[in-house]
Amino acid sequence: MSQTGGTREQNTGGRERLLAAAVRLFAAKGYAATSVRDILRAAEVTAPVLYYHFGNKEGLFLALVRDGVEKVELARQKAFDEAATTVERIRGYCMASIAVRREFADLAWVVEAILSGPPDAAPRFDFRGVLTTMLCQLQELVEEGITNGELRACNPMHASMVLVGLMEVASRPRLFEMAGVDPDDQIEGMLAVILGGLAAPAN
Asked: pLDDT tens, 21-72?
């Protein structure tokens, strides 16, 4: 292919098509079983476009993960900016995280499959670090709520782990959704139970 043709592919949505094709194939076939040729065929681009944007299949997968993590962080920050109290920030943090992770449900499914497989086959990304950061952020919010009197005294780490557990379950539409039940209502209800249990008694 000429340089002009390659440049045209790179500038006409080649990156986005590769990302969309990769996440569909990774979810359907698994990361290891998906070949570069599969991705190129589904995205309708040539190999130089993939190498230009991502370097290789692992680079493509890592770009997907980083895009997802960045969207979660932006959604959380927006929720924080709109909240007036610590409890509202905790609720906003959880709802924003769940919304973005449900949007990236196929990618989350792929990540879980990778983490369940042989460690040497996994792309080099600190998945545990992402979870640790989430736990620490929630723990700080719970500690803040205890300090300002919005939440009762409790073990902040235990509370943050319960909240992460809620997000892990609610972020999986294939498992969580039930016929005739609004998933948003379910999430709101679970948060109400957790935050109600953590709330400090009224004086």
From this structure: 999 999 888 888 899 999 999 999 999 999 999 999 999 999 999 988 899 9
Nearest to 127 by CA among 187, 169, 178, 66: 66
Per DSSP, helices labelled H in 12-104 are 14-29, 36-43, 47-53, 57-82, 86-103
Which residues, at least 6 apart from 43, have a Cβ–Cβ distance to it below 8 Å?
14, 17, 18, 20, 21, 22
User: Between residues 124 and 71, which one has the greater pLDDT?
Assistant: 71
Between vectors from CA 122 to CA 119 and to CA 126, what angle results, nearest 5°?
95
User: How far is the C-alpha of 29 from the C-alpha of 49, rounded, in Å?
Assistant: 22
**CA–centroid distance for 41 within its chain:** 27
Taking the model in full, what pTM does it have?
0.78
The Cα–Cα gap between 153 and 146 comes to 6
Q: Which domains does the chain have, with CATH numbers?
A: 1-55 (1.10.10), 65-198 (1.10.357.10)
Q: Dihedral through CA 175, CA 179, CA 185, CA 186, nearest 10?
A: -40
Q: Which amino acid is at 121?
A: A
Q: Return the percentage of the chain with pLDDT > 70, whole number.
A: 87
